[in-house]
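Researcher: For the record, we're logging two predictions in this thread. I'll number them. Prediction 1 follows.
Model: Prediction 1, sequence and structure:
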Amino acid sequence: MATLIRPDGPIPAKVMIVGEAPDQDEERAGTPFVGVSGQELNRMLHEAGLSRSECFLTNVARERPLGNLIEKFIALKKKDITPAHRLLRDKYVLQPILDGFAMLKSEIAAVQPHIIIPVGNLSMWALTGRWGITKWRGSMLLTDELVSPKPIQVIPTYHPTDVLRQWDRRAIAVSDLRRVKRYRDEKFPDPGWNFIIRPSFSQAIQVLDKLYLRACHEAIPLRLSFDLETRNGHIACAGISWTLQDAICIPFMERGKPEGYWDPFEEPEIIFRFYRLLTHKNIEVVGQNLLYDCQYTYRHWHFIPNVKQDTMISQHSIFSDLPKSLAFQASMYCNFYIFWKEEGKNI
């Protein structure tokens, strides 16, 4: 008969840590997060300003899967589904996960955590329905109705066992835990975004003209974030941000409309204003991998923006051993972050 692992920690607790399934050390001790991985978790918590003694620790599955492979409990491919599997969320799982998920919900109701740290794919999926810890780690998420009637703050990160296998992930996991520390007693902030999407011609002109006038009259350079999205070798849309909250995305292509988003008289007016703004001597353009964007502005719009900083180059220059993608940088440096790179792919 399989050994069931009991949770560990105070009730109530502000911080709850949820693993995937026990390993051999946890199976022998009957307690989650012991052995080498548990010791590493303790060290990372300490570096982040947290203490294990203040956290409630548990797993989704309460018994160890064969070979420590979580795939033994969850069918990640259609060919792995058997008559014994049952649907939970969008995946087929075996009874140990169904039972563990029911216990996890009861524990959450008893512990009443302010914030939960799922470590690994299974625990993040159980709490939020998302899969892919490398993409979603560091995101500021919430549980859904399947877990708790009241949404609970969630910040996923790498499992300490994963950190031990890939040591370069340790600093990233500690950064995620520091974010947990920051919001252990507080609510996630409202980002207060004011995004203008699919603007009218007058809206687009008004924003670009206002920014140009600011560049003409302000004593210090005006810093703008700039980004292009392209499709089939053409500019699909252009985005400009002038504060942490304010941005506009101006489309040039539209599905089902081969002639483009703007009429033949409107588009040149908008492109001219992009040229006038982004080449102004008092404008500093910031962006990610701007060499790519500049090739498109030069080829299609016949100008190169006044680039001041490329965040990809800055990241790689300072932390050459860490990823330099925009999503990774956002996960490390933004005050509010949720992984967004797959939004709209199924639209």
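Researcher: Logged. Prediction 2.
Model: Prediction 2, sequence and structure:
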Amino acid sequence: MAALPGVPRDHPDRRALELLSYIVGVPSYGGRLGWALTKSGLTYAAAASNSFAAHDGAILMSTDCDTRNTDSVIQAIREVVEGVGADGVDEWELREAKAFMLGRMLLYGAREDSEADVVAAALNRSEESGVEQLDLPAFSRAYLSVTLDEVNRVARTYYRPGLLAVAAVGAVPSREKHVFPPGTFRALFQP
């Protein structure tokens, strides 16, 4: 598990961070983090998400690995964070993240004609997120209005290796250091 400081739920950077977390860590292997870890054979999947609270938040990244790979997995996480913070992301990645956010809402979101408990849950999420979950045009505008410049500014602000905290849970690694050469994982996303 790795974490970076995030933002509270009503912060103006919230939407850009949500989209960036999709780009970095859509669950499984589709995001940058999962690609770096699965392409190298270190893990089978990874994820990144945000938690938002009233006064603060966190960007969380997680994966499971063989404890013999712990050092290399930590290296990969650090390099992916460093690369995103330094180089930002591409326009196509942002478009894909927006499509995912809006598609998920259309497929799984509550509607005004949904059952009472589903509407009540959507109203609670609306209050927590600051976006009306039952107002699809407002929800869409909140994400579609995020620009690539905003996402890359947020990446530079929050995706800094010096802010990264890493914790490994499980058996103690054997310390057979099979660490990849520095820059291996960051290079995966270089043109």
